[in-house]
Amino acid sequence: MHRSSDSKLETAHILFLDAVGYSILALDEQISVFRGLQDIVNKSAAVTEAAAEGDVIRTPTGDGMALVFFGPSPVAIHCAIDLAKQIETEGGFQVRMGIHTGELVRQLDVNGVMNVSGDGINVAQRVMDFGDGGHILMSLAYARQLQEAGDPTAVDCHDIGVASAKHGKQIHLFNYHRRAVGTPEVPSRVRMDDQWVRPKELRLGTAGHSLVMATLQILGWLLVSPMQWRTHVTQIDPRLSPNFTVIDLTGPQIRRNRDLRALLIQVYVICPALLSLIVLAALLPFRTGEGLSAVASVFTMIGMGYLVSVLLGIGAAFVGFVILAFQAIVEGSAVRLFGIASLGHAFALSAVCAWGFITLTAVFPRHRIFPAWREITVAFLAGVVTVTTYTTVILFSAHRGRLYQSLALGLLSFAFVSLVIGMRWRRWARGFVFGQVIGVFIGAVHFAIASPPLFASRIGRQMLGGFASGLFSAVVWAMGFALAEKLGDSRAAIAAGLLVTIALNDPGKAWVVPFAVLWITYSWMRRRHSGAVIG
């Protein structure tokens, strides 16, 4: 196309979209998909209103189309949101979208139809090309237009940094997503881009805050708004999954990324330190007795939280620290006041299970959806297999001496850790090595604690024993979780882990109380989310 003599540059907002996987479809399927996309676009309120004012040009592009809006900037994103909802409801196919604000020229093409040309079209297509199915991406230029217009959608535009397009061109990308629209996942092309540049300032980040306040902010995200936590992680490094584990990290990755180092300090130092102070303040007034030792409770929380960060992920560790602190205060006090086999202990354990189910559901997104009967069956199966294996090893070694018991616990821990890391992260070699380290440590500590002459200090025994107890609890809990996750989904995995929690804490004959509360909470959460994917 060539400019006519009276052509002039105009600023437009270009929405580029195409059907994912269009080129590999059969010809009749391609025709069906394109017609479906065309029908949905033509029915869009944003398109029909702009067309009535002469403020939109629709241009087919083979496997999609470009919608060029000359009116207010928010029209393009509102159109994208409307199209995403309609395609999800009635399309039967996936699209990716890219939006850019740039200059172009209106002119008649060789068929006498009004069309456009200019660099704005090319940039919009490059923005779209970064996306995967479901993405609504936009350039920095368009994101600024939304912000200047004061449009509410600007709040859900998340900076994902500068990525490399064709011919070395750098494009600053934003990802629009909110519940049921768009996707929070960082595009695969951005994840694989070695030249990626992180945002100068994390939009949802903790820059400028003290480490303590930043930690509290992150805990708030995890418990009430997990989408913000996931966006924060992907802004720190798009190659990280939202619930990444430290075994995914490399030395250079940590050294070069100040924000990643800050996040690790928050999860491994600040969070457990804050919660330890709370646990000590709550439990020290009690005398040390059955089921209650302030020092042991603190080190159990730290040991379990640390290992959960490796086996289940950093996000799970943050929430795990809070749940364990809550458990130490509520359940520990109940055991001391009423006894381990009491109804009071059962009610305290019920509160732990209910709160744990709700908070962990916020951390682990559901990528698969199964009917209730399958989730419950998988949870029971995983819980029973894990507890039966653990109980069998304990009973078999109970009367064979301290060394034999220590070896049995060490081997069980080694096997569970290796399986969890292998099943969840597909890192079998690292799981094998890390499992050996954990197994040797747990076995050695059990032998030392069971032999008073080797470890005479009471405080030392409480610290080391609590830490090892936390590690072993994490190993068993994570095994039930990983097995259920492999056979079902994350909700079944959480239920399986909490079934293991009930078994490990043994409320006696009153076990039916936390058991019933767990499934009441499961039913409530299932109705609340109505089978939707929690992402």
What does it look like?
This protein is an alpha+beta fold. The chain is 61% helix and 11% strand. The protein has helices spanning 27-43, 45-52, 74-91, 119-129, 140-149, 188-191, 211-224, 226-236, 251-256, 258-283, 294-311, 314-338, 343-363, 372-397, 402-425, 428-449, 458-487, 490-505, 512-529; strands spanning 9-19, 56-60, 64-69, 95-108, 114-117, 136-139, 157-164, 170-176. Strands 1, 2, 3, 4, 5, 6, 7 and 8 form an eight-stranded mixed β-sheet that branches. β2 (56-60) and β3 form a beta hairpin. The chain is elongated. The model is unreliable at 1-5 and 531-535 (pLDDT under 50).
Which percent band covers the strand fraction?
5-15%
Number of domains: 2
Rg over CA atoms, rounded to whole Å, is 28 Å
H/E topology pattern: EHHEEHEEHEHEEHHHHHHHHHHHHHH
Shape category: elongated
In round numbers, the mean pLDDT is 86
Low-confidence stretches: 1-5, 531-535
The major β-sheet equals: 8 strands, mixed
What count of helical segments does DSSP give?
19
Structural class: alpha+beta
How far is it from the N-terminal to the C-terminal residue, by CA?
Answer: 44 Å
Helix content: 55-70%
Extended strand count: 8
Secondary structure: elements and pairs:
Layout: E1 9-19, H1 27-43, H2 45-52, E2 56-60, E3 64-69, H3 74-91, E4 95-108, E5 114-117, H4 119-129, E6 136-139, H5 140-149, E7 157-164, E8 170-176, H6 188-191, H7 211-224, H8 226-236, H9 251-256, H10 258-283, H11 294-311, H12 314-338, H13 343-363, H14 372-397, H15 402-425, H16 428-449, H17 458-487, H18 490-505, H19 512-529
Helix pairs in contact: 1-3, 2-3, 7-8, 7-10, 10-11, 10-12, 11-12, 11-17, 12-13, 13-18, 13-19, 14-15, 14-17, 14-18, 15-16, 15-17, 16-17, 17-18, 18-19
